Amino acid sequence: xxxxxxxxxxxxxxxxxxxxxxxxxxxxxxxxxxxxxxxxxxxxxxxxxxxxxxxxxxxxxxxxxxxxxxxxxxxxxxxxxxxxxxxxxxxxxxxxxxxxxxxxxxxxxxxxxxxxxxxxxxxxxxxxxxxxxxxxxxxxxxxxxxxxxxxxxxxxxxxxxxxxxxxxxxxxxxxxxxxxxxxxxxxxxxxxxxxxxxxxxxxxxxxxxxxxxxxxxxxxxxxxxxxxxxxxxxxxxxxxxxxxxxxxxxxxxxxxxxxxxxxxxxxxxxxxxxxxxxxxxxxxxxxxxxxxxxxxxxxxxxxxxxxxxxxxxxxxxxxxxxxxxxxxxxxxx
Length: 333
Prior knowledge:
This protein is α/β, with parallel strands linked by helices. It has 13 helices and 12 strands.
């Protein structure tokens, strides 16, 4: 029977110290790329598998990260959080962490779940989504000095915790400026009612794009997310004396509704009127809908990096904030 590979045997095979092998596994950023590659090759060749149980005993950590699963929405754009969960899980597993999912009806219930998970499982930290003004969850975690990072900015508050987000305003501005360059002078915005932090951010990008193009006319209809909401908004805008020739939407769900209403009226999306959504969902790709794509894999990787830095106590005196740029994906609409 072949002897089980150990930390020492990997170190010998890679001609490095035992500590270097440990750093490659636990803190790869401390090791040079060439050395890291040599150690990883030895790990793969010898079939070495770090002992999670031994690490937990040594570090007094569970290697578990908690994440609340949000309620199912009424649009197709919820798939973005599915993509985030998949990327977060895959990235966490690279560092031998596991994601523990749980549900909660609201923020208060979520904080109760935090307390239960810390007491029963010993969860190391949390990743939060759907941040908003006066967020009870971040305040609860900060008061108890518990490690966490958010996918979403601390809206309307000082940057007192680590966060990762996508620049939604930049995305809608890219879309609006592209449409203006194509000759559109009446570009409508279909978004959510005021008060939605993410929605307001995306609306601000549309407004900035119009201003940059010298366009003062700002037709917009606020509706709740979903295909029917987009269809309703498009119907009202198209019934105006001077109808828009282009639509920038806060989500792909809304954009699909706009496309449906255009076709219902015998108008050709992309020819008679242009439509750009937000989130670049698989549905958008299949149906040829132009959209703004979020770098979800990068968001997940940065969330894991920040949380690991906090757990190791190397995050620095100031919390880390990361705002990632989206990109415009042009298709037939």
